[in-house]
Design goal:
Layout: E1 8-14, H1 23-30, E2 35-43, H2 54-59, E3 63-66, H3 76-91, E4 96-100, H4 107-115, E5 119-124, H5 130-135, E6 138-141, H6 165-169, H7 172-185, E7 192-193, H8 194-204, H9 218-224, E8 228-234, E9 241-247
Parallel strand pairs: 1-2, 1-4, 2-3, 4-5, 5-6
Antiparallel strand pairs: 7-9, 8-9
């Protein structure tokens, strides 16, 4: 699932379950994966609680899709987003979808889009149910979006500092993911191409993101991990360098 600036993407935002303050960082993240040719946000725009979206929609050329609440306790917004997604999917003009929501109601939609051979990127808060996270090819927590380490995020909150090496070693989830990803990509000598390891990590856990551990890049996380060695190999002509990783054990 390599970044592809030419991939045609549709951004479908569940405004009822998203924060307009994250829009600049969200769109910057999506730009890594492709060109967002379709940009829509769904909600009952006549209600007062969505008033904070107005400037963001205008600034980023996002089309608001009006959906009235037909009855109390039912979320008509979800249904409208799902119907539009299916129409766009069968239109055959897109390479992938970006579903912005922390709602588990879109789990089956994400799975159906993947069955069609398209890529699904999910974006939501850490409270997002695991079922929806797992249904996406890649899931990004909006809490990880923003500027470099030490700078305030665009939602106004301060990013957490990088975790210490000792704490990384005690993280059983991370250790298990790294071990399996490196083993799957390593050669007979135990060395593995870092890019292949990164691809394996996303396949193993769609929400894997070095920023969840306080590092901007996978290479930074690996360099800080006490159980792994990182090696930068340069070609004989000195023009290209490639990073490799292996376990110290």
């Amino acid at each position: 699932m390599a970044s592809n600036g030419s991939a045609r993407l549709a951004i479908l935002i569940d405004a009822d379950n998203s924060n307009p303050a994250t829009l600049p960082a969200l769109l910057a993240e999506i730009a890594k994966y492709g060109n967002a040719s379709v940009r829509r946000a769904y909600g009952n725009w006549t209600s007062g609680h969505l008033g904070g979206w107005k400037n963001g929609l205008l600034t980023h050329s996002i089309t608001p899709i009006q959906q009235f609440n037909y009855t109390t306790g039912k979320n008509a917004t979800d249904s409208a987003l799902i119907i539009d997604a299916m129409d766009l999917m069968y239109g055959g003009h897109l390479d992938g979808f970006c579903i912005v929501s922390s709602d588990s109601d879109f789990t089956r939609l994400a799975a159906r889009i993947r069955e069609q051979g398209l890529t699904v990127y999910g974006f939501g808060e850490r409270k997002t149910p695991q079922a929806f996270v797992a249904a996406c090819d890649k899931f990004v927590y909006v809490e990880n979006l923003g500027d470099d380490d030490g700078e305030p995020r665009r939602d106004g909150k301060q990013k957490q500092p990088a975790k210490k090496t000792a704490k990384l070693k005690r993280d059983r989830k991370l250790d298990a993911l790294l071990r399996e990803a490196v083993d799957a990509a390593s050669d007979d000598s135990g060395w593995a191409h870092l890019g292949a390891v990164g691809s394996n990590l996303v396949r193993l856990a769609s929400d894997f993101d070095p920023r969840s551990w306080g590092f901007r890049k996978l290479k930074d996380l690996v360099a800080a991990h006490p159980d792994y060695r990182l090696e930068d190999r340069t070609t004989p002509d000195g023009k290209t360098s490639t990073l490799f990783i292996r376990s110290k054990k």
